[in-house]
């Protein structure tokens, strides 16, 4: 299973508009972070998690042409506003796109993009999607998926366990029941916004603590703000944790 980190930035992206900080002005390409998303490729299936605003560029930059289904974590702008670009995948693949989310997120998708679901012809191309409410456990050929409820502040959203990997973005707290759903995983991408604590995201040290608690072979930090320099953060982390960056590919 190959996982490509398409974007690893927080909701502002990095660099942030009009910001003159050291990270935003950095020449290190690993400090350039589009909004957060991953692509999962197995022998039999291609899966995209979330449709961020830069989805088009993220797929082009990584030469990704095939997506069999999309999983949505929640409906915040940085995770959903590239949704219309699904239509290019429809055109290339010649088929509708199944999109899986919880009931609340599906409702928001219909509200944010009403023209996609209107009976009236909008006068332009629209994504051809099949909205499906996620089940607790489901399978896409050789990918076994578990929907894992987590908290993004007071908002319950979804993380996903995919075989022995978990994607835990926009996470501030994980209920004990959900921790049990993660037992036995070996790798994970974990939200780590900044060093300081935040009401809706994990800090770096909280993410490290979670990776330790899960006893992972390796953890990858994502959803990273401009307060964190890639190299400095990597130097701070133990050897079994890495700072993810846009375009990083891991094989597990």
UniProtKB/TrEMBL annotation:
Q: In this record, what's one Pfam family?
A: Lactamase_B_2
Q: Which residues form a coiled coil?
A: none
Q: Which residues cross the membrane?
A: none
Q: Where's the Metallo-beta-lactamase domain?
A: 34-226
Identify the domain of life.
Answer: Bacteria
Q: Which SMART domains match?
A: Lactamase_B (SM00849)
Protein name (record)? Phosphoribosyl 1,2-cyclic phosphate phosphodiesterase
**Species in which this protein is naturally found:** Halanaerobium saccharolyticum
